[in-house]
Amino acid sequence: MSETLTLRQWLLTDEPTSRRHARLASLYKGWLTLRGNTMAMFGLGILVALVLMALFAPLIAPHDPYVQNLGNRLQPLGSPGHPFGTDSLGRDILSRLIYGSRITLYIVTLVALIAPVAGLLVGTVAGYVGGWVDVILMRVTDIFLAFPRLVLALAFVAALGAGIENAVLAISLTAWPPYARMARAETLTIRASDYISAVRLQGASPVRIITRHIWPLCISSLIVRVTLDMAGIILAAAGLGFLGLGAQPPSPEWGAMISEGRRFILDHWWVATMPGLAIFTVSLAFNLLGDGLRDVLDPKEGSQ
């Protein structure tokens, strides 16, 4: 018990003894703030459950999500062996939802790795270099921002071809402009700081200044924005799947499941409603977690 208290006191001290100590203390204080936000922890719990469900899908799913049984088609909720019923081909909806979580996490992870990095690179280069480089990069960004995200994604997928990888690429190509705008705005403020001038006088190259001194200060705002944008990314992926331009049959992608169930929405509403509720739940979880992270990483904006 005493060791736990000593560790807690060490993490909560106002006088860190090293850079590593200061970093660990900051992370621990941020975790305490996040833990105090009930709704953020609720969202985090849903996302943890989603990850575990995706990892252990073969052990959790009661049936094979691809096996068809036309004699057992369109079974209602609560049917024996099918808690969420079956679809028009007799496939278990619960099993397809569980395996569909893998596709959702796959899309979210890839977009979160591509779009923010591209936006951060474009925004920081434009903000730090300035001049004609800034003008060109920001005008390109404005062109992307002028189109609705889903419409632009549809155009890219139509050009690249249907498929989940092309859908991820299309969503990433439409998601980076807001991150570029945010990174540029912060870079314009940071580059005028005294410590940036001091680093420049010491002979640091522009690449080193951007990567070692500007990027770390943009990361916190970027993380908050990425978390809040996850709901829109999931909806965009579901929209492409609904239109048949995302994951292709028989993949248990949630948007494609809604598209299939829309034909039976009046008489067999659960076929489209269950994947719709899954999309709603995961999107809500990301929004709740994003609000909590904003309070931790950007307390000024979170308190407004």
TrEMBL record:
Compartment list: Cell membrane
Membrane spanning stretches: 39-61, 103-130, 150-176, 222-248, 268-290
Domain of life the protein comes from: Bacteria
Keywords, in A-Z order: Cell membrane, Membrane, Peptide transport, Protein transport, Transmembrane, Transmembrane helix, Transport
Domain ABC transmembrane type-1: residue ranges: 101-290
Main location: membrane
InterPro entries listed in its UniProt record: ABC_transport_permease, BP-dependent_transpt_permease, MetI-like, MetI-like_sf, OppC_N
Membrane-topology annotation of the record: Multi-pass membrane protein
Protein family (similarity comment): Belongs to the binding-protein-dependent transport system permease family. OppBC subfamily.
Protein known as: ABC transporter permease
Source organism: Ruegeria aquimaris
